[in-house]
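Before drawing any conclusions, I looked closely at one protein, both as residues and as discrete backbone shape codes, quoted below without any editing:
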Amino acid sequence: MILDVGGTIVEDRGNVPDILRRSLASHGVDSTPEEIGRWRGASKREIIRHFVEQQTLPASTDRESLTTAIYHQFTAELIEVYRSVPPIAGAEEAIREMRQRGFLVATTTGFDRAITASIFDRLDWSKYFAAIICSDDVAQGRPSPFMLFHAMEAARVNDVAEVMAVGDTPLDLQAGTNAGLRAVVGVLSGASTADKLRREPHTHILQSVANLPSLLTAKL
């Protein structure tokens, strides 16, 4: 069972796109809410790099250094915000129940290790997961399937037919489909509407991860 983080097991209050826009703007890089919205679920460093590459800048600009500076600002602000963001209602209970029933549980996220560690340490959640895979663990984030494969590798799972991925964005579902997993589940607790998720290949759409144990009971 591979779960996304923001919007799937931890509440999404719209902080990420707001902080991204603010961090980009403070370094003279333009973006719009609509543009950022299309990247929900992707690696945050890849998002910033995309907007920096699209921006018209002086020829002397070191775009990689600019990307890094924006990313550091974004990371510092987001860590501070996530000191008080709560889990999705019922998420921890669902994770514990799945563990008790013998499922391995892992996470993948578009956050980097520093942001993810700040969330999981505060919630004392690392104990639940066979793997915690972050965007900086792979060469390319969603919709590429590499984080999912890396989670399988870390959890010693060999067969994609034994794996379910759960997320709240179209990119989450695209990554699960690209990985060829047994089940690709969208949840409505985060960034996307039911209409947006249903446009992507999927096996199930649920209100939240709190509904996962019931789904597993029905399917087993």
Notes: The mean pLDDT is 94. The longest strand covers residues 183-187.
